[in-house]
Design a protein that fits this description.
Aspartate Aminotransferase, domain 1, homotetramer, PyrdxlP-dep_Trfase_small (chains A, B, C, D), Aminotrans_V_dom (chains A, B, C, D), aminotransferase (chains A, B, C, D), five-stranded mixed β-sheet, seven-stranded mixed β-sheet, 13 helices, L-serine-pyruvate transaminase activity (chains A, B, C, D), pyridoxal phosphate (chains A, B, C, D), alpha/beta, 387 residues
Amino acid sequence: MSASSGRHFLQIPGPTNVPDRVLRALAQPTIDHRGPDFAELALDVLRRVEPVFGTSGPVVIYPSSGTGAWEAALVNTLSPGDRVLAFETGHFATLWRDMAEGLGLVVDFVPGDWRHGVDPAVVAERLAADEQHRIAAVMVVHNETSTGVTSRVPEIRAAIDEAGHPALLLVDTISSLGSIDYRHDEWGVDVTVSCSQKGLMLPPGLGFNAISAKALAAAERARLPKSYWNWAPFLEANERGFYPYTPPTNLLYGLREALSLLESEGLPAVFARHDRHAAATRAAVRGWGLEVLCADEREHSSSLTAVLLPEEHDANKVRQIILDRFDMSLGAGLGKLTGRVFRIGHLGDLNDLTLAGTLAGVQMGLELAGVPVDPSGLRAALDVLRG
Amino acid sequence: MSASSGRHFLQIPGPTNVPDRVLRALAQPTIDHRGPDFAELALDVLRRVEPVFGTSGPVVIYPSSGTGAWEAALVNTLSPGDRVLAFETGHFATLWRDMAEGLGLVVDFVPGDWRHGVDPAVVAERLAADEQHRIAAVMVVHNETSTGVTSRVPEIRAAIDEAGHPALLLVDTISSLGSIDYRHDEWGVDVTVSCSQKGLMLPPGLGFNAISAKALAAAERARLPKSYWNWAPFLEANERGFYPYTPPTNLLYGLREALSLLESEGLPAVFARHDRHAAATRAAVRGWGLEVLCADEREHSSSLTAVLLPEEHDANKVRQIILDRFDMSLGAGLGKLTGRVFRIGHLGDLNDLTLAGTLAGVQMGLELAGVPVDPSGLRAALDVLRG
Amino acid sequence: MSASSGRHFLQIPGPTNVPDRVLRALAQPTIDHRGPDFAELALDVLRRVEPVFGTSGPVVIYPSSGTGAWEAALVNTLSPGDRVLAFETGHFATLWRDMAEGLGLVVDFVPGDWRHGVDPAVVAERLAADEQHRIAAVMVVHNETSTGVTSRVPEIRAAIDEAGHPALLLVDTISSLGSIDYRHDEWGVDVTVSCSQKGLMLPPGLGFNAISAKALAAAERARLPKSYWNWAPFLEANERGFYPYTPPTNLLYGLREALSLLESEGLPAVFARHDRHAAATRAAVRGWGLEVLCADEREHSSSLTAVLLPEEHDANKVRQIILDRFDMSLGAGLGKLTGRVFRIGHLGDLNDLTLAGTLAGVQMGLELAGVPVDPSGLRAALDVLRG
Amino acid sequence: MSASSGRHFLQIPGPTNVPDRVLRALAQPTIDHRGPDFAELALDVLRRVEPVFGTSGPVVIYPSSGTGAWEAALVNTLSPGDRVLAFETGHFATLWRDMAEGLGLVVDFVPGDWRHGVDPAVVAERLAADEQHRIAAVMVVHNETSTGVTSRVPEIRAAIDEAGHPALLLVDTISSLGSIDYRHDEWGVDVTVSCSQKGLMLPPGLGFNAISAKALAAAERARLPKSYWNWAPFLEANERGFYPYTPPTNLLYGLREALSLLESEGLPAVFARHDRHAAATRAAVRGWGLEVLCADEREHSSSLTAVLLPEEHDANKVRQIILDRFDMSLGAGLGKLTGRVFRIGHLGDLNDLTLAGTLAGVQMGLELAGVPVDPSGLRAALDVLRG
């Protein structure tokens, strides 16, 4: 246990800071998962989580990490040998591709530079070229947690429609849900994948699939083997507020409380807050004279910002100094960005002064690490926050 | 939220009562899962959980229910079309069989009457008959949560050895681990499956696989598709205290605290306590003039007792009365035992007076339901408890 | 930290078992005691605590034990040398007398046998004899925590009225408030003294004074020195939801939650529950062949029962055995009852099965201590509980 | 409940931010205050709190606010009509004077300008003039919470000694204990008064008196009436780990945890941290072009800083803007400083980034309120923090 005073600054792009109220909710006594109180809890959260996905359809909540929810999206809708279209937007898109291949799918993986989102024009082109409709699904990471780039799902949807292609649209919202505007139904997404430990402000341990009618129909035909991830027994048991196996009761307590917080603030206000914090963070980065990794103004993430360092500086050294001196965790560069970037998480349960403290810590850490920065960066961020 | 006063009596055979200390531990702030504090936590619990399984080998801890750990045991060690030997000891053995078949395994399912455990003689006989060693694994539920019958794993092991058969031994300890004596290494078990919400006194959300060297070798050859459940990336990441995907941090906090409780009481004392509580419960049941479902004195479960009612009485009606009048949850009869039995959980964080209150509630509930019982049953239990 | 499993049985007559919800409420972050959120909290609890006292007048809540609230009742209403009438109903009445004398009051202390409450006839007689109205106040302990005897306040009120005497009526409800029917306004009580750790189901740390208009008028003239306990600055600051000095914020969080629990169950149901549990406890005691200390059927306490042992047995030895073997705390005999009685608390957050477990533990402990008891005692209690 | 996201910034000079670990400790179940576990708790905290006061003598811990501990210091050592010497260093010194007068003491109150601490030369002069030794005690507020001025107790002690005067030295350390170096024994203090909700990082509800041998001797002769505050029964009961009345069990749980935190960081490191945070805060204030209220460089408080605004600005308006826009509480100007100053608390559980966020919020709030400030103030603070 560390001897440091005060609260740790957890400014990675998830797990995010869990609100005190949610932590206390987790500590409620576990109850009978076959009894009436549990059914009431489950029905309540299943109903109230739908608007967060922007859907009126079913949402399955697994006792799992988000990785499990990735797998669930694939095994419920696809069959061995199915072709899917995916995009190298960053580390997590690559991992999802690896999983798809490991499960026996054939992945068309469009290369990328890890600084841009999915290009809707490429989607249109690839689908148009697929005249025999052999592509069964398009896999998109909405917000690349490794890069801070947000793909434009409505434009991707439009591209699919334009091509008149029947492929399913599978979207990973792991680091966007509850932080960045997202609309499962309106955008015609078929499976939305998410998890608990980011915008939902919970500890890790819940995986989510929001499911369209088209995805449900696909599930009837899908032949990838599945047991734990099988939607069918969930949808049946959930009707009465139960689970096909022992449910993650205490995390559902936390979810109920977290949903109350989101409802109390209101989703539009939540999204506006994230937009504002992201803008302030970019103002700081640019004020310091550093580069934001995301290369397209239309694709800046509102939940995290990846900061590119000059080549001669090691981002992990900066992170270590900041952890040691200021008790703050930042996200590392992942995969081919290792050592090149660090990532500032500004999603979940956060306010202006915590962001100000965060950016002050980054500024001091950069200075201590010998990275040349203009200290007016912090002030530029405050100008945004002050409004 | 119920208006009733006092603490709910959660006397189902799991989830069990989570100790206050563990509940508070769950409420610690979530930390960076790639930072040094997490690594320290993970290495600590991975090391300290081994003795609970009676192993010095690796234990994988999944963010999942126990059902996931069932699946993990199968997909990591077996290939499509593999033959496995399983036994109809009750509802959960049947579900595990169903899963195995769903995953593409061929199951030899030895029928049973749900009142006995696995018969070691049948194991010996079946394996001896399998001269070509086509049976790849023997699947055993150590403690059948649906019946309160504990199979004799050492004798099963001896039967396998006697037959000179190379089959893997896969054992489900979901409702026995941390409650009933169990020895993964000594008994030559290859994969031990367990979960958090029973003897480990945690909320649901963690699945466990303890893995023998033989199972690790089998995993090299196993061809069932797997991603989330794949041992290999776990074993590699766990070496340094990390996870292949986002770990269930707050449940690991709880696990650390629960392990401290088990260590503080000492496993032999924990097992003796469960034995004593089970004996007291059986004394009550027999004192009431009712029948314990388990039909073999060598196989009584120390973690739960299933009580068989006279045919003309509905066990669910008894349970409902007890829930309504005494705020106590008991386990229902499952599968073909629905309405015929109710189950008293006496595992996990429990003491003599809570058991006395439990049995008093059962006695009063039976009386209120019009089941003819001899009220000296409770007193017989107290005679056991008083010693 | 004890190695014992399960939840400790805290069956002393206070501090009582604090409900989980209240414990979690205590753990909310402390806030600015001069800010709007605090004012809202304070106004809320001050308003909602009134019905628990049966008053529509002011209630002062001190950061103190109940002993402080005793002192507050005296120093706010009386002057040095004032004469008060008090009654030796037990240990706590004697301590309150000692305090009054220590503060410079002259106490007429009517002797008692510690098995009866205040005799209204003696009140009438003493006041009638005080023709010059030199007695400034009558001090009554509503429920003697040391004996389990409840004095009949309405009859005492009637006796005062009958005598036409202007004395103030000061009543200690420390172990009755929120457990036993009590009506400050209707019964014409002038100061009601109470505290947090009994029927209010909170940890110790709050002292209460409910104050009549007559007491407020008396306070104008009272000349005992006072600072911390002075009502006047409280009444002024409380108007706007503030405190004259730093308030006990976290205990007020707990109080808010505890009031919600009482409101949810409803005070009449709360009182009926206590009456029923007390009846069951007396049935057990008598069934064992032992004697309840309280000697008047009209005065049995519904919040605790003192059990008188045969002379040759040491009640403290029984308590020690019960603590060691069954992890249950019972109340000791106090003052001249040391070793002669033990006290079973059955107030606060309690249900039938916890009471059954409690009485089972007492029965087993008596047997282990060699006190001859008829084991049908427990069954007699269950007959009451089952109804 | 506010809809705002993130953690409230509680930067008043107490109550301070209670660490999560302490909040969870508060939520432990209340235990029997006459049992062995309580005795162990009480003996542990009584022993471990001594070094925080810098004493090896007794410390009494009351269930009370700090105001109660003020009263205790007076009533245990003094008699009606006794003369005491006190100093108008600010609002709280004035309130303590008022209390002393209310209790019947005669106070020589040396006027002050609320920008300086106690002048040791004046102490020397007044005591030298008191040839008949009629002054029974010198009352000093170590750290004036209303002004951010720390009096130099060692020099005051030297002044008393120089005068050869037998007066007791009574010191209020309410907002310095555990934050600013303090040594009860070494500095020859007779009664040190403190409370829980500042440097001890607890909720309000505990009052403390550390007591010298000379004070104990004075207590033998002191004739102010006392009951609740009487040291004698405390010192006797505390010997065995008990209390003369019901103790504040859950706050003592919190105290135990808070003492662990202080021990883990180490008192010298704790004091150095507070000094550094105070220096950073003053750097910000001066950088903004504003004035620190404390007028003597030797007397700057390390636990809070009072900021004087230009006459035409209302400090309460600034505070309101900061509360509304940035969810941060600051301390108001008290008494004659109302509207003229606001106070930044930087004591207790605090780290560099929270202080940076705090100062960023103050800077933005001043700007929004139209107070002319130089925005390089924050940067000056970061220069101090970065080192």
